[in-house]
Design goal:
14% strand; Rossmann fold; alpha/beta; 6-stranded parallel sheet
Protein backbone atom coordinates (compact mmCIF):
# COMPACT_ATOMS: atom_id res chain seq x y z
CA UNK A 1 0.00 0.00 0.00
CA UNK A 2 1.16 3.56 -0.68
CA UNK A 3 1.19 5.24 2.73
CA UNK A 4 1.79 8.88 3.64
CA UNK A 5 2.93 9.64 7.19
CA UNK A 6 2.70 13.10 8.73
CA UNK A 7 4.58 13.69 11.99
CA UNK A 8 7.94 12.12 12.84
CA UNK A 9 8.39 12.64 16.56
CA UNK A 10 9.31 10.02 19.16
CA UNK A 11 6.30 7.86 18.25
CA UNK A 12 5.75 8.66 14.59
CA UNK A 13 9.24 7.81 13.36
CA UNK A 14 9.16 4.32 14.86
CA UNK A 15 5.65 3.64 13.57
CA UNK A 16 6.56 4.74 10.05
CA UNK A 17 9.62 2.47 10.16
CA UNK A 18 7.47 -0.51 11.12
CA UNK A 19 5.13 0.12 8.19
CA UNK A 20 8.10 0.26 5.85
CA UNK A 21 9.59 -2.92 7.34
CA UNK A 22 6.25 -4.61 6.68
CA UNK A 23 6.62 -3.94 2.97
CA UNK A 24 4.54 -0.81 2.51
CA UNK A 25 5.70 2.11 0.37
CA UNK A 26 5.99 4.94 2.93
CA UNK A 27 6.50 8.67 2.38
CA UNK A 28 6.88 11.08 5.29
CA UNK A 29 6.56 14.78 5.98
CA UNK A 30 7.27 16.82 9.08
CA UNK A 31 7.37 20.56 9.64
CA UNK A 32 10.94 19.96 10.82
CA UNK A 33 12.34 18.13 7.82
CA UNK A 34 15.57 17.28 9.63
CA UNK A 35 13.57 14.86 11.83
CA UNK A 36 12.75 12.86 8.70
CA UNK A 37 16.28 12.43 7.40
CA UNK A 38 17.21 9.33 9.48
CA UNK A 39 14.22 7.51 7.97
CA UNK A 40 15.77 7.47 4.51
CA UNK A 41 17.99 4.54 5.45
CA UNK A 42 14.82 2.47 5.95
CA UNK A 43 13.70 3.07 2.39
CA UNK A 44 11.26 5.82 3.35
CA UNK A 45 10.87 8.80 1.03
CA UNK A 46 11.04 12.26 2.59
CA UNK A 47 8.73 14.86 1.05
CA UNK A 48 8.98 18.63 1.44
CA UNK A 49 5.24 19.34 1.67
CA UNK A 50 1.96 17.74 2.70
CA UNK A 51 0.82 18.00 -0.90
CA UNK A 52 3.72 15.97 -2.24
CA UNK A 53 3.46 13.46 0.59
CA UNK A 54 -0.25 12.65 0.31
CA UNK A 55 -1.20 13.11 -3.34
CA UNK A 56 -0.72 9.46 -4.39
CA UNK A 57 -1.35 7.82 -1.02
CA UNK A 58 -3.95 5.12 -0.46
CA UNK A 59 -3.75 5.75 3.30
CA UNK A 60 -2.57 8.79 5.22
CA UNK A 61 -1.56 8.64 8.87
CA UNK A 62 -1.03 11.62 11.14
CA UNK A 63 0.48 11.82 14.61
CA UNK A 64 1.22 15.41 15.55
CA UNK A 65 1.28 17.40 18.77
CA UNK A 66 -1.96 19.16 19.65
CA UNK A 67 -5.56 19.41 18.39
CA UNK A 68 -4.69 22.73 16.75
CA UNK A 69 -1.96 20.93 14.80
CA UNK A 70 -4.42 18.23 13.72
CA UNK A 71 -6.83 20.90 12.53
CA UNK A 72 -4.10 22.67 10.56
CA UNK A 73 -2.77 19.47 9.00
CA UNK A 74 -6.21 18.40 7.78
CA UNK A 75 -8.10 21.64 7.19
CA UNK A 76 -5.40 24.25 6.56
CA UNK A 77 -4.65 25.91 3.23
CA UNK A 78 -1.94 23.31 2.60
CA UNK A 79 -3.86 20.53 4.34
CA UNK A 80 -4.67 16.90 3.67
CA UNK A 81 -8.31 17.49 2.76
CA UNK A 82 -7.17 19.69 -0.11
CA UNK A 83 -4.62 17.32 -1.65
CA UNK A 84 -5.53 13.74 -0.71
CA UNK A 85 -7.16 11.68 -3.43
CA UNK A 86 -10.84 10.87 -3.09
CA UNK A 87 -11.45 7.59 -1.31
CA UNK A 88 -8.18 7.65 0.62
CA UNK A 89 -8.12 6.34 4.19
CA UNK A 90 -7.21 9.13 6.63
CA UNK A 91 -6.16 7.96 10.08
CA UNK A 92 -5.35 10.42 12.87
CA UNK A 93 -3.29 8.72 15.58
CA UNK A 94 -2.68 11.91 17.56
CA UNK A 95 -4.25 12.02 21.01
CA UNK A 96 -6.69 14.77 20.22
CA UNK A 97 -10.18 16.09 20.90
CA UNK A 98 -13.16 13.74 20.38
CA UNK A 99 -15.12 16.78 19.18
CA UNK A 100 -12.51 17.51 16.51
CA UNK A 101 -12.46 13.85 15.47
CA UNK A 102 -16.21 13.99 14.84
CA UNK A 103 -15.86 17.26 12.94
CA UNK A 104 -13.19 15.84 10.64
CA UNK A 105 -15.36 12.80 10.00
CA UNK A 106 -18.33 14.97 9.07
CA UNK A 107 -16.31 17.32 6.84
CA UNK A 108 -14.32 14.60 5.11
CA UNK A 109 -17.21 12.79 3.46
CA UNK A 110 -15.18 11.91 0.36
CA UNK A 111 -12.63 10.05 2.47
CA UNK A 112 -12.60 7.12 4.90
CA UNK A 113 -11.74 8.75 8.23
CA UNK A 114 -10.70 7.02 11.44
CA UNK A 115 -9.48 8.37 14.77
CA UNK A 116 -6.96 5.89 16.15
CA UNK A 117 -4.88 7.18 19.08
CA UNK A 118 -2.34 4.82 20.60
CA UNK A 119 -0.88 3.84 23.95
CA UNK A 120 2.38 2.11 24.75
CA UNK A 121 4.94 4.89 24.56
CA UNK A 122 8.18 4.88 22.63
CA UNK A 123 8.86 1.24 23.55
CA UNK A 124 5.52 0.11 22.13
CA UNK A 125 6.09 2.18 19.00
CA UNK A 126 9.54 0.67 18.44
CA UNK A 127 8.43 -2.91 19.08
CA UNK A 128 5.11 -2.62 17.19
CA UNK A 129 3.21 -3.59 20.34
CA UNK A 130 1.03 -0.49 20.69
CA UNK A 131 -2.56 -0.50 21.84
CA UNK A 132 -4.61 1.15 19.09
CA UNK A 133 -8.06 2.55 19.89
CA UNK A 134 -10.18 3.16 16.82
CA UNK A 135 -13.30 5.19 16.11
CA UNK A 136 -15.15 5.55 12.80
CA UNK A 137 -16.99 3.22 10.43
CA UNK A 138 -16.47 -0.43 11.32
CA UNK A 139 -16.00 -1.36 7.65
CA UNK A 140 -13.13 1.13 7.42
CA UNK A 141 -11.62 -0.28 10.61
CA UNK A 142 -11.77 -3.80 9.21
CA UNK A 143 -10.18 -2.70 5.93
CA UNK A 144 -7.28 -1.05 7.77
CA UNK A 145 -6.85 -3.77 10.41
CA UNK A 146 -3.89 -5.45 8.70
CA UNK A 147 -2.13 -2.09 8.52
CA UNK A 148 -2.72 -1.46 12.21
CA UNK A 149 -1.20 -4.89 12.89
CA UNK A 150 2.13 -3.57 11.56
CA UNK A 151 2.21 -1.15 14.50
CA UNK A 152 0.29 -2.71 17.36
CA UNK A 153 -0.88 -5.84 19.13
CA UNK A 154 -4.03 -4.72 20.95
CA UNK A 155 -6.24 -3.22 18.25
CA UNK A 156 -9.77 -2.40 19.38
CA UNK A 157 -12.75 -0.93 17.54
CA UNK A 158 -14.68 1.36 19.92
CA UNK A 159 -17.53 2.73 17.79
CA UNK A 160 -18.44 5.86 15.85
CA UNK A 161 -16.11 8.76 15.09
CA UNK A 162 -14.56 10.21 18.25
CA UNK A 163 -14.82 6.94 20.17
CA UNK A 164 -11.12 6.19 19.79
CA UNK A 165 -10.27 9.59 21.26
CA UNK A 166 -12.66 9.09 24.18
CA UNK A 167 -11.06 5.71 24.87
CA UNK A 168 -7.59 7.29 24.84
CA UNK A 169 -8.79 9.93 27.28
CA UNK A 170 -9.91 7.11 29.60
CA UNK A 171 -6.44 5.59 29.18
CA UNK A 172 -4.74 8.84 30.17
CA UNK A 173 -6.98 9.22 33.23
CA UNK A 174 -5.84 5.77 34.37
CA UNK A 175 -2.19 6.61 33.74
CA UNK A 176 -2.45 9.88 35.66
CA UNK A 177 -3.31 8.13 38.90
CA UNK A 178 -0.89 5.26 38.31
CA UNK A 179 2.23 7.26 37.48
CA UNK A 180 1.69 9.50 40.52
CA UNK A 181 1.12 6.45 42.74
CA UNK A 182 4.38 4.87 41.53
CA UNK A 183 6.27 8.05 42.45
CA UNK A 184 4.65 8.07 45.90
CA UNK A 185 5.51 4.40 46.39
CA UNK A 186 9.18 5.10 45.65
CA UNK A 187 9.22 8.03 48.03
CA UNK A 188 7.61 5.93 50.77
CA UNK A 189 10.32 3.29 50.30
CA UNK A 190 13.08 5.89 50.50
CA UNK A 191 11.66 7.55 53.61
CA UNK A 192 11.30 4.13 55.25
CA UNK A 193 14.99 3.39 54.78
CA UNK A 194 14.50 0.79 52.05
CA UNK A 195 16.29 0.49 48.74
CA UNK A 196 13.61 1.60 46.25
CA UNK A 197 14.88 -0.64 43.45
CA UNK A 198 14.64 -3.69 45.69
CA UNK A 199 11.12 -2.62 46.66
CA UNK A 200 10.10 -2.37 43.00
CA UNK A 201 11.62 -5.80 42.38
CA UNK A 202 9.50 -7.12 45.24
CA UNK A 203 6.17 -5.54 44.32
CA UNK A 204 6.26 -5.40 40.52
CA UNK A 205 5.06 -8.99 40.03
CA UNK A 206 2.21 -8.75 42.52
CA UNK A 207 -1.06 -6.83 42.67
CA UNK A 208 0.82 -3.50 42.51
CA UNK A 209 2.46 -4.40 39.22
CA UNK A 210 1.79 -2.15 36.23
CA UNK A 211 3.40 -0.93 33.02
CA UNK A 212 4.14 2.39 34.72
CA UNK A 213 5.88 0.71 37.66
CA UNK A 214 7.94 -1.68 35.55
CA UNK A 215 8.99 0.90 32.97
CA UNK A 216 8.86 4.36 34.54
CA UNK A 217 9.37 3.34 38.16
CA UNK A 218 12.98 2.28 37.62
CA UNK A 219 13.60 5.37 35.50
CA UNK A 220 12.38 7.51 38.41
CA UNK A 221 14.93 5.91 40.70
CA UNK A 222 17.75 6.53 38.22
CA UNK A 223 16.50 10.07 37.47
CA UNK A 224 16.34 9.07 33.82
CA UNK A 225 13.88 11.61 32.45
CA UNK A 226 14.43 11.02 28.73
CA UNK A 227 10.99 11.35 27.12
CA UNK A 228 9.18 8.22 26.10
CA UNK A 229 6.20 10.53 26.33
CA UNK A 230 6.53 14.28 26.85
CA UNK A 231 5.08 15.99 29.90
CA UNK A 232 3.71 18.76 27.68
CA UNK A 233 1.73 16.23 25.66
CA UNK A 234 0.46 14.46 28.79
CA UNK A 235 -0.78 17.82 30.06
CA UNK A 236 -2.62 18.30 26.76
CA UNK A 237 -4.21 14.86 27.07
CA UNK A 238 -5.33 15.41 30.66
CA UNK A 239 -6.83 18.77 29.74
CA UNK A 240 -8.85 17.13 26.97
CA UNK A 241 -10.23 14.58 29.45
CA UNK A 242 -10.96 17.28 32.01
CA UNK A 243 -12.81 19.43 29.46
CA UNK A 244 -14.95 16.50 28.30
CA UNK A 245 -15.91 15.72 31.88
CA UNK A 246 -16.66 19.34 32.69
CA UNK A 247 -19.03 19.48 29.71
CA UNK A 248 -20.85 16.52 31.25
CA UNK A 249 -20.94 18.13 34.70
CA UNK A 250 -18.51 15.62 36.17
CA UNK A 251 -15.34 16.06 38.24
CA UNK A 252 -12.35 13.71 38.43
CA UNK A 253 -10.36 14.79 41.52
CA UNK A 254 -7.31 12.55 41.02
CA UNK A 255 -6.97 13.64 37.39
CA UNK A 256 -7.27 17.28 38.41
CA UNK A 257 -4.57 16.95 41.08
CA UNK A 258 -2.12 15.13 38.81
CA UNK A 259 -2.74 17.68 36.05
CA UNK A 260 -1.91 20.44 38.51
CA UNK A 261 1.35 18.70 39.41
CA UNK A 262 2.42 18.34 35.79
CA UNK A 263 1.53 21.95 35.03
CA UNK A 264 3.86 22.99 37.87
CA UNK A 265 6.58 20.77 36.42
CA UNK A 266 6.14 22.44 33.03
CA UNK A 267 6.43 25.89 34.63
CA UNK A 268 9.72 24.74 36.14
CA UNK A 269 11.16 23.76 32.76
CA UNK A 270 10.17 20.09 32.60
CA UNK A 271 7.76 20.29 29.65
CA UNK A 272 10.10 18.39 27.32
CA UNK A 273 10.98 15.73 29.89
CA UNK A 274 9.33 12.31 30.21
CA UNK A 275 6.29 11.71 32.40
CA UNK A 276 8.44 9.79 34.93
CA UNK A 277 9.89 13.14 36.00
CA UNK A 278 6.83 13.56 38.23
CA UNK A 279 9.12 12.11 40.93
CA UNK A 280 10.65 15.61 41.11
CA UNK A 281 7.41 16.79 42.74
CA UNK A 282 8.27 14.57 45.71
Amino acid sequence: MNIAWIGTGVMGSAMAKNLSKSGHNVSVFSRTISKCEPLKEFGIEVKDSIKECVKNADAIFTIVGYPKDVEEVYLGEEGIFKYAKEGAYLVDMTTSSPILAKRLYELGDKFHILDAPVSGGDIGAQNATLSIMVGGNKEDFEYMYSIFECMGKNIIYLGEAGSGQNCKASNQVAIAGTVAAVAESIMYAKKSGLDPKTVLDAISKGAAGSWQLQNNGYKMIEKDYAPGFFNKHFIKDMKIAKEVMEEKGEDLPILNKVLEMYEELEKNGFGDYGTQSIIEKY
